[in-house]
Amino acid sequence: MKINMKVAFIIAILIHAIILAVLLLRINLDKPSRPNLGKGDIMHATFVPPAKGKETGKASAKKSAPEPTVVIEDPKVKEEALKREQQAKELKQRMEQKKLEEQKKQADLALKKKKIEEEKKKLEEQKKKEEELKKKLEEEKKQKAEEEKKKKLEEQKKLEEKKKLEEQKKLEEQKKKAEAEKKKLEEKKKQEELAKKKAEAAAKAKAQAEAKAKAQADSLEDDILGTADGDEKNGQGLGSGGSGGEAGYGDKVRGLIEQNWRIDPSMNGKRVVVTIKIDNNGMVTSQNCQGDEKVCASALESIVNVGMFPKPPSSCPECSNIKISMTPKL
Predict the structure, then answer these.
(1) I want to staple 291 with a disulfide (CB 3.0 to 4.6 A). Which of 40, 204, 221, 272 is the partner?
(2) Is 273 inside a domain boundary?
(3) Cα(94)–Cα(236) distance, rounded to whole angstroms?
(4) Cα atoms in the Cβ-side hemisphere of radius 13 Å centred on 294
């Protein structure tokens, strides 16, 4: 058990006081031996002189002079007292030495304790620093992990956006390619239609050229094939309905119209009467049709497709007005 330094000091003082008290009591309680007067013992006497008054002062009342005190000391007693005094002194020295040693010991203990406390405090501070460092490292590690996670998410987001943009770009390219293909097909179709129209135009021109050639060939037979009155039913020799026209001009007009006439089964047997007016150059200046609407439309279209007819004979003014009866037959 550890004893406080102050308490130990008080206990030491008490022990010293008790020892001194015992020694003093022992010295005073010992009964001195009676001296042997006249037996060779040495006697010691102390003379105490009377008190003197002041020279300038008044004379004081005379007092009886004190009798001299005679102390008779026994050498043995004195030796014993000296011995005890020496022992007490030595004891006191030992006690003081012990006290000093105890103080030194307590000081060493206090210093050691202080050192231990300082070491403990130092260890606690070091431990605290280590904990703070550990906490700081954990926080940095956590922060770094969060930053890495955030960075990873951002990179993933960028990759997804990049992928999305690439897919969108790919779709746009596919759409563009499809539009280009569509445009190409449309262009091809357009070219085909143009080629078809060109072929049709060439065929039409050829047909017109053939019709023209045929008309020129047939013009040599006008006097033989036509009649002045004409026949409205079959369209031969039709003029204006009067007399005096060159025979066969109506057949030429009718033949050209029939070459360019497009009919279908729904028109079969539906009779129409077409009236046209041709100028001196063979151009149609007016046209009219009576009968089924669809057949009339087809007949008038065939007249447009012919474009130019042979010039009417100069000797037949009434040939400029042609009236033809047409009946589709399939």
Answers:
(1) 272
(2) yes
(3) 179
(4) 10
Mean pLDDT of the chain: 76
Confirm whether 70 is domain-assigned.
no
Residues, the chain:
330
**CATH number of the domain bearing residue 263:** 3.30.1150.10
> Number of folded domains in the chain?
1
Q: Does residue 245 carry a pLDDT above 70?
A: no
Backbone angles phi, psi at 246, to 5 degrees: -75, 135
HEC profile of 127-165: HHHHHHHHHHHHHHHHHHHHHHHHHHHHHHHHHHHHHHH
Whole-prediction pTM value? 0.29
| 162 against 209, higher pLDDT | 162
Q: Is residue 50 part of a domain?
A: no
Q: At residue 288, what are phi and psi to the nearest 5 degrees?
A: -150, 155
**Domain with 272 in it:** 223-326
Is the pLDDT at 223 greater than 60, yes or no? no
- DSSP H helix total and E strand total for the chain: 5, 3
Task: Please report, for residues 220, 292, 302, 327, the alpha-carbon distance to residue 268 in angstroms, rounded to integers and kept in the order given.
Answer: 33, 11, 16, 8
Is 275 among the domain residues? yes
The C-alpha atoms of residue 306 and residue 308 are separated, in whole angstroms, by 6
289 neighbors 300 (Cβ within 8 angstroms): yes
